[in-house]
Amino acid sequence: MNIGHAAADTGLSVKTIRYYEEIGLIEADRAANGYRDFGERHLDQLRFLAQARHLGFGLDECRRLLELYADPDRTSRSVRDLAIENLESVRAKITQLRTLETRLETLIDQCHGNDDPDCAILDSLEKGAHD
């Protein structure tokens, strides 16, 4: 199967699939003409990667998950530990987003939103640019 069909089948973009191959997450076979040839095993790996990325795993974690998936001697503890690390990262991002939300709410509340040119949002951005 060519890369376009693999992209359509997995929901990933052609660019993403090429990138995954470039960084060594997957290794497509090559047809006699040099074009990538994706078999069912490759499609399974790409679907696996898509799901892992949807769960917030980074590329390094995805690489590790693929290794664990392929390892018949893996322990579920290893997979669980990796998932716990990812959850901690997700929680840290949520905390950062909540802080950002509060800051934006404060700025919006401080902006009068009328016909005057004065704006607390722009003032804050300007101040931050000079800090």
Automatic annotation (TrEMBL):
Which Gene3D superfamilies has this protein been placed in? 1.10.1660.10
- What GO terms are given for molecular function? DNA binding; DNA-binding transcription factor activity
Domain HTH merR-type spans what residues? 1-68
Q: Do you know which InterPro entries this protein is assigned to?
A: DNA-bd_dom_put_sf, MerR-type_HTH_dom, MerR_fam
Q: Does the keyword Acyltransferase apply?
A: no
According to the lineage, what is the superkingdom? Bacteria
The alphabetized UniProt keywords are: Activator, Copper, DNA-binding
Q: Does the keyword Nuclease apply?
A: no
Q: How does it assemble?
A: Homodimer.
Protein's UniProt name: HTH-type transcriptional regulator CueR
According to its UniProt entry, this protein's organism is: Histidinibacterium aquaticum
